[in-house]
Write a structure and sequence with these properties.
alpha+beta; Ribosomal Protein S5, domain 2; 4-stranded mixed beta sheet; about 20% strand; globular
Length: about 130
């Protein structure tokens, strides 16, 4: 389970990561055949990075195309567990949205973990 401070919950926060809102933050997207990761990194001079309370926040998007309610919730639980293990590797004050694609429902946890690692690495290290 992700701690409350590590969760994106408001719709406006999701929209800010997915579409941007002109706040000068760097947004990157990277995908695999199982999922797409959207990362919103803070500006290098941002005060949030310097503050002690800055921590990454993560949200999940799993549409009906992935499957019925049981399948979608199972997919979110598996992704949440995988992301919780990787929180330490995310930049402070980064906002991340993980969007599951339909093949994610049939993937093993190892395949999801490898896809998540690959997408996160590409999104975080990509230059704007």
């Amino acid at each position: 389970m992700l701690a409350r401070r590590h969760r994106l919950t408001a719709g406006e926060d999701f929209r800010a990561v997915l579409r941007g809102r002109g706040d000068g933050r760097r947004r990157q997207r990277a995908g695999t055949d199982l999922l797409v990761v959207h990362v919103c990194l803070p500006r290098p001079d941002a005060t949030a990075v310097a503050s002690l309370g800055a921590c990454p926040r993560v949200g999940f998007v799993v549409s009906k195309a992935v499957g019925n309610s049981v399948v979608r919730h199972r997919t979110v639980r598996r992704l949440r567990h995988l992301v919780a293990d990787r929180l330490g590797g995310l930049p402070p004050a980064a906002d991340v949205v993980v969007r599951a694609l339909p093949p994610a429902a049939r993937a093993t946890s190892a395949e999801l973990g490898a896809a998540l690692d690959q997408a996160l690495a590409r999104a975080v290290t990509r230059r704007s």
